[in-house]
Amino acid sequence: MRAMSNKYYITTPIYYVNDLPHIGHTYSTVAADILKRYHKLLGKDSFLLVGTDENSQKSSEAAGRAGLTTEEYVQEMSTKWEQTWQKLGISYNNFIRTTSEEHKKGVYDFFTLVEKKGDIYKGEYIGLYCKGCEAFVTEKELVDNLCPIHKLPPEEIKEENYFFRLSKYKEDLLKLYQDNPEFIQPESRRREIINYVQNHLEDISISRQGMDWGIPFPTDEKHRIYVWFDALINYLTGIGYGTDDKTFEEYWPANLQIVGKDIIKFHCALWPAMLMSAGLPLPEKIFAHGFFTINGQKIGKSTGNSIDPVRLTEEYGFDALRYYLFTEIKFGGDGDFSEEKLREKYNSDLANGLGNLTARVAKLAENSGGEFQLTQHTFNEASTEEYQQCIENLDFQGALQVIWQIIRSLDKTISDNELWKFKDEELITQLRPLIEDIRKVSIILEPFLPDTAKLLQSHFTGPKINALNPIFPRK
Ligand code: MSP
User: Fold this and answer.
1) What are the Cα distances from residue 317, in Å, to 38, 79, 122?
2) CA-to-CA distance for 415 and 40, rounded, in angstroms?
3) Which residues are catalytic?
4) How far is the CA of 49 from the centre of ligand 1 (A)?
C-alpha cells in the first residue's frame, strides 16, 4: 500500500462550457471545497483542481448559435465559470482548461504510453450517438427512441475510429473493486459499476472523424480525440503532468475524485483502465453524489429552471447556500432544491441559531466590561472525534449536526442559567467558557462556512469583546 503522505489532492468534474454553472455543478464543487479546506486545516498540503471541458462538439455548436468563433466562445465561457467559483469562494489551486497547451501536451504524452502498450487500434464503429451525453448510447437505453437523459434523438454514426482496448482491463478492474471496496462510493454505485464491467464492458471508440474542433488525433490527422478520453486526463495535466513532473509527482494519485452519478462509468471504469494502460497509479477513491431537482423538476435549460448560484449568493451569502446544500441532503443521495426551504433553513439555523447565539454572547461580553484572555485552539483541539469521523466518511450532514448540537447546547446554557441576570465578575466567569466554545465552533465551521468562521474568529479574539451585529439578518 501507499506510504502515508502529507498531501491531499481532490478533484471535481470539469464542466462543459455550453452551459453556465447551476446549483448541481455548484454542489460538486462546494463538496470538494469543503474537503480541501478540512484537510488543509488538518495540516495537509491540499490541492483542489477545478476546470472546464472545452473540446466537446457542444462547444462549437453553442459558439455558432452565439455568433462567435469556438475559440472566442470557450474563452468567454470558461472565464464566466472561473468567475463563478471565485464569487462562491471556492479555494481552488488550479483552474484547468482542456484547450490549454499544457493540457494538450499531457494528453499527447499519455496517448503515447497507451499506444506503446498496444491498447489503441483502428476499427469500424456503428452506433447511436447522443450529443447531450457526448457518448454512444445503446438501443436498450433509449426511451421512446430518445436519450433518456437529454430527451434527444441519437444520431446513427458509422465511421472508422480508433479504439481503446477497454475490455482487456475487465479482470483487472473487477479485481480492483474487489480488493479495494472503498474505491467506488457509495456502495450502490459500486454495485452498479461491478455489474456494468461484468456484463457490458466493451472497447471504446476514442476518435472522431470530420470534426473541426477538439484535440487532433496524434497519429492520424483526419481524426480528433474523443472528448471524454481527453477530458479525463485533466486530472493529471491540472497538476503538471507533461509539463511539471515535480508537482505532478507530489500530488498524484488523487485522494478523492468527486463526480455526479451520471458520469460514473467514465470515472470508475474507463479512467482506471486508462491509468492502468499508461502504467500510472490509480486514485484512491471516487465518490459519486446524487442529483438535485428543483421543486421536483430536473434541472436544465429546457425546463428553464437552472437557478443561478451567484444570484442566491448575492441574496443570502455564499455560506448560507453552502449550509443549505449540505444540511438538506445526505451527500450521495438525490435531493430537491427549493429557495423556500433555503430561506427557512437560513432563518431557523443561521439567523436564529448561530446568529442569535453569537450576538447574545457578544452583547453580554460587552455589557460585562470584562477582559477575556482566550486560548488559541488548534483545529484538532477544536474539533471532536465525531465531527472528524463524519467528514472522513463524507457525511457532511452529520458533521453539521455535530456543530449545531453544540450551538443549541450553548444557547441552552444561556437560557438555563439566565445569564442576562448576572453582572461584572460573575458574568465574566460565566461567559468565559461560552466564548471559548464559540471560538472552537468558529474553527470547525471553517470548511463549511468559511466567511462566517473568519468573521467570528476575528470578533471573538479578546481581550475586549464588543457587541456584534446579527451575522445573518433575518430574510
Ligand atoms: N464534462 C463532463 C465531465 C468531464 S470530467 C472529466 C460533464 N460535464 S457537465 O457540465 O455535464 O457536468 C456534469 C456534472 O455536474 C455531474 O457529474 C455533477 O457532478 C454535476 N451536476 C450536473 N447536474 C447536476 C444536478 N442536477 N445535481 C447534482 N449534480 C449535478 O459531464
Assistant:
1) 20, 22, 53
2) 36
3) 22, 25, 130, 133, 147, 150, 298, 301
4) 15
Residues lining ligand 1, judged by CB closer than 6 Å?
Answer: 13-16, 24-25, 27-28, 53, 231-232, 234, 259-260, 262-263, 291-292, 299
Residue with the smallest CA separation from ligand 1 atom 8 is 15
**pTM exceeds 0.90:** yes
| pLDDT tens-place values along the chain, 475 residues long | 445 679 999 999 999 999 899 999 999 999 999 999 999 999 999 999 999 999 999 999 999 999 999 999 999 999 999 999 999 999 999 999 999 999 999 999 999 999 999 999 999 988 898 888 888 888 888 899 999 888 889 999 888 999 999 999 999 999 999 999 999 999 999 999 999 999 999 999 999 988 899 999 999 999 999 999 999 999 999 999 999 999 999 999 999 999 999 999 999 999 999 999 999 999 999 999 999 998 888 887 666 677 889 899 999 999 999 999 999 889 999 999 999 999 999 999 999 999 999 999 999 999 999 999 999 999 999 999 999 999 999 999 999 999 999 999 999 999 999 999 999 999 999 999 999 999 999 999 999 999 999 999 999 998 999 999 999 999 9
Ligand 1 centre from 160 Cα, in Å?
29
| Best of 15, 215, 237 for a ligand 1 pocket test (most atoms within 8 Å of beta carbon) | 15
| Ligand 1 atom at minimal distance to the Cα of residue 291 | 27
Spell 14-52 as b/e; 16+ CB within 10 A means b. Answer: bbbbbebbbbbbbbbbbbbbbbbbbbbbbebebbbbbbb
Kindly give the distance from the C-alpha atom of residue 222 to the centroid of ligand 1, in angstroms, as a whole number: 30
Question: Which of 309, 401, 414 has its CA nearest to residue 349?
Answer: 401
Pocket test for ligand 1, best of 229, 263, 308 (most atoms within 8 A of CB): 263
The grid coordinates listed for 118 are 498496444
